[in-house]
Fold these 2 entries.
Entry 1:
Amino acid sequence: MNINSLREQFPALMQHIDGQSPIFLDGPGGSQVPQSVLNAMTAYLGHYNSNLGGAFFSSDKTVELMASARQAAADLLNAPSAQNIVFGPNMTTLTFSFSRAISRQWQAGDEIIVTNADHFSNVSSWQQAAEDKGVKVNTALINEADCSLDMAQFESLLNENTKLVAVTYASNTTGSINDIKRIIKLAHNVGALVYVDAVHYAPHELIDVQALNCDFLACSAYKFFGPHLGIVYAKQAHLEGFTPYKVEPAKDVAPGRWETGTQSFEALAGFISAVDYIAAISELDSSHTRREQLTVAFAKTKKHEMALSEHFLTRLAAYPKIKLLGIDDVTRLAQRTPTFALTFDGIAPRKVSEFLGQQHVCVWDGNFYAQGLCEQLGVLDKGGVVRIGCMHYNTIDELDKLFDLFDALLNTK
Ligand SMILES: Cc1ncc(COP(=O)(O)O)c(C=O)c1O
């Protein structure tokens, strides 16, 4: 992977602030965006800004754009059809809307499972729907050693009353990847549906909704080099079987009936371009399908990200005053994303991120809405953690500069 030529495509990575190159280790909160995505958004707004269903060229173009965006999402997720894709403003809003629709069929005595591994967008939405319906909410815990789901405890919660499992593919705080295929199989064995939050996982690994056999899977384009846009894959039977809240005269045909109001068409244009940006990392020509290109591209970015993780964890081992929450074993890199949750002896997470921010090293501190995880790990009331989040555009050199700053922070403390 030619990291320099990829980095050159990102205006944010090429800028200087106070004469310094900023270092973006804030990817899990939102990734940087290549110029091609910006161009696509400008081109749509500049020439074709319109709406669906008009009798003129820019409206025709908007209809085409919507269809292309659905196809790009289907290629990214390996959905059987573009008609399995629903767009919305962000993952949280879509998840609230799906939870409203799905819970219409729940009854008192039913149960659902949410997890401590999840961002609360995939917890609160279901908890509140359950409360409305008198449905019991069970919480699956994490293994504190590696921060993945505690599978034995999860299995003990499943029973014939379980209607839905809402679970994250990977933790947005510690990077731990859950055995999502097994979770789905176990849930299906008792007849429960599974709603997967793939927001953190999507920039790091290729998703295959057909191989997973998940019922629903949500992600967010601003986490994988695109603009702010939520995406949900759902099985056709569910898009037709459940009834969403919608405006009365709007067409009642899936997937459109799940999309309320006017979509951000410029975001759809940017999203297509973001998928194409990732596909182009493969360097395969157009005789290969976009899915084939994405498969090769993700294999390349994963290899680079694993090298970043290995370097980070190896260097971190020399810092006894910094504690990592999650997988620290360099032989288990396939089970984590390059996202690291840290606590510093005697220094609050906010103080660390402020110190780094002054040097234009961008990292997040806090709980990142992973409230259950931070509570179980005992850091919720201590300011959470410092999150170092690498993307494929980060370099070993940037990580070394980060460790130089850790040295300065720990020495000047
Ligand atoms: C794992 C995870 N799930 C869900 C969300 C919410 O996504 P959105 O901002 O698109 O609503 C986030 C955002 O940070 C996240 O990291």
Entry 2:
Amino acid sequence: MSESAEIIVVGGGLFGPAIAYGLARRGCDVALLDDGDDVLRAARGNFGLVWVQSKGMGMQRYQDWSRESAELYPDFAAELKELTGIDVIYRRGGLQLLLGDEEVEAKQAEIDRMKAQAGDRDFACEIIPRDEAQQMVPELRFGNRVTGAGYCRYDGDVNPLKLLRALLAGFQAAGGRYRSAARVETIRHDGAAFVAKTQQGRFTAPKIVLAAGHGITRLAPMVGLYVPIRPQRGQVLVTERAEVRLPIPLATVRQTDEGSVQLGNSEEDVDFDDGTTLDVTRRIAARTISLFPALAALRLVRSWGCIRVLTPDKCAIYDESEEFPGAYVATSHSGVTLAAVNARQVAPWISDRETPPGFDHFSAKRFGRGEDDVQAA
Ligand SMILES: Cc1cc2nc3c(=O)[nH]c(=O)nc-3n(C[C@H](O)[C@H](O)[C@H](O)COP(=O)(O)OP(=O)(O)OC[C@H]3O[C@@H](n4cnc5c(N)ncnc54)[C@H](O)[C@@H]3O)c2cc1C
């Protein structure tokens, strides 16, 4: 079997569907190719935050990028609902609760550094006192050790599985072709177009976008792209459904629209091991109880480990191949947060070379490239 398209997007996680959705909405003929069910997919195991505070330390463009996406979200979520009927349950508001004076001092130091980096730009994060934070979460008393909270008016959350479903539905409603179980094995350029070989046959297009999370590492060298990414595990716990209502998400405690409470979120360097461990489960549960003692009464019903896709500076990479123009890569942590800019700002870059100011900051050239990397490629 052989299919052709204007643009092939590789990867059905969060980056691929958001960009493919944006491209299809612009009238492009897009084939979105995804691997099978048994592969790494951060898109299906994340925490659902649309988060701006603490993003982009060391790279102001990425701080702005996260905020720009959060600013687009209300309209973006409404557009998805209108087009697909799927409500992604976008909420604005969020807190990072702080335990003890040490955490307040560390957060204040982070805010000061980010403010200095932002200069006269809008860095809307501050520490608010415990009482003010408690008023935002009136139904659930904080533990005694909560001293304050990091607050940013752009933070929020969505139901990430509904977001994924809405992006795929919207993409198909706009004429896109989604092919699951179509793992891209090889990509070559035949002089006129890129040819992606999959289990379902060949797909041919003059443009190809690698948005396949960790799958990018194997594919990027085939089209002359350098994409340094590494895995990091996060473990998440889920409680039974609770009657209490958390009206906004906390950085590590988030109630889903179905009522269960998600607790997070570890950062572990364990290669691609996506298992769970008792020590981390205990640590997450203990911190949650320090934040909200009443949650100790809830039963845990599920836990999982999921692998983040991280660049060396934890900021996004968007790049076009110099050796094979028309081959693009898009990857980052924070694929939930960035879904709106991926659909509305990255898609025009790929379809029409329209880029927002400072977009070149996202090139992987910022990491340089050692001799070992060149040989590995
Ligand atoms: C524990 C945890 C919590 C997180 N919390 C948040 C959060 O609160 N907010 C936030 O914004 N982000 C969060 N993230 C990050 C977010 O989930 C990721 O940034 C996002 O999923 C990355 O999307 P992706 O499409 O690049 O990669 P993935 O979601 O990993 O998807 C990659 C896709 O590519 C496909 N693929 C791979 N190789 C191939 C191939 N050869 N051919 C075809 N398809 C291929 C796979 O099948 C998969 O569908 C979290 C992540 C983790 C692990």
